[in-house]
Amino acid sequence: MSGLGTRTIVEINQAANQFQSSIVLKVGKRFIDVKSILGLSITLLTHEVYRLDIHGPDEAEAKQAMSDLFKKHGLVLQED
Questions:
Q1: Which secondary structure element, helix H or strand E, spans residue 24, and what is its range?
Q2: How far, in Å, CA of 69 to CA of 54, rounded?
Q3: Which InterPro entries match (predicted)?
Q4: Domain ranges of the chain
Q5: Which residues contact 79 (CB under 8 A, 6 or more apart)?
Q6: What is the pLDDT of residues 66-78, one digit of tens each?
Q7: Contact 39, 11 (CB under 8 A)
Q8: Which CATH class is domain 6-77?
Q9: 43: helix, strand or coil
Q10: Which pTM value belongs to this model?
């Protein structure tokens, strides 16, 4: 099991918290609020495929920012 570094988790969490939209990470049967640093720290692994569900007033901007960050850190997002 290969976890991500603290810096990556904090960067993703801080970016998510800049948006009003709800940002939920789906991996397997788990649903994690990306704004929860604890949830991220026990969920983000480099070998998983993730899906982001983003809903709210700034969802387009949030989706782009989160997608860019996941790619930057080598995390695979499932295409819609």
A1: strand 22-27
A2: 15
A3: HPr-like, HPr-like_sf
A4: 6-77
A5: none
A6: 999 999 988 889 9
A7: no
A8: alpha beta
A9: helix
A10: 0.85
